[in-house]
Design goal:
By secondary structure, the chain is an all-alpha fold. Helices cover 79% and strands 2% of the residues. The chain has one domain (9-29, 42-223). It has ten helices and two strands; from the N terminus they run ααααααααααββ.
Amino acid sequence: MARSSPGVWLRFALLVGLLVGGALIAVHLGVPDVDALGSQVQGAGSLGVAVFVAIYAASTLLVFPKGALSIAAGLIYGFWPAFAIVLVAAMLGAVVAFGLGRVLGRDAVERMAGAHLLRLDALIARHGVAAIVLVRLIPLIPFTIVNYASGLTSISFRAYTMGTLIGMLPGTAAYVALGAYGRQPGSWEFIAAGLAFAGLTVAGVAIARRRHTSMPVVTSGGTS
């Protein structure tokens, strides 16, 4: 194992500070007022879209429920424009958080976890894109945590981005539809969005449990 250097732990402390500070900011700000946000960004035209993307991407760096902003996007822009806007913004935030996790935390976690991290890396390498798609399909797993945690592993940037994009599609569509058709709770679009969200949650948890029970147990001596 390589000798630890002060820079490694300083970077790790910075990452922890960003996460803790981001969590405190998210708690302080709370859920934004959708009507106020909508009037501000719509009044700014195309610049308002850029502002919304920036706000959304920044929120993914915090421990903030991005689903609330996805629903807000649906209310403000309608389904298809909001769907595109949310995908762009979420991918931007996911890439930045992944990079922060990789640059600031990977070395420190490797020193702390040692061989355990190497075995986890090997497991992730075998599943790659599928592993990221799976965790993205489970709405109960915080989007931000997956972003940073992925950067701490050795998963390739390509596999991470592909898995993130594919895995986000169903959930993003469901959240945006809940917002776009939220003022028409009896419409088939709103009902379909609600059912899709519930289905994603149940299916994601079921698949995760199945994979967990079929995964080999990793011990200090290898797999069993």
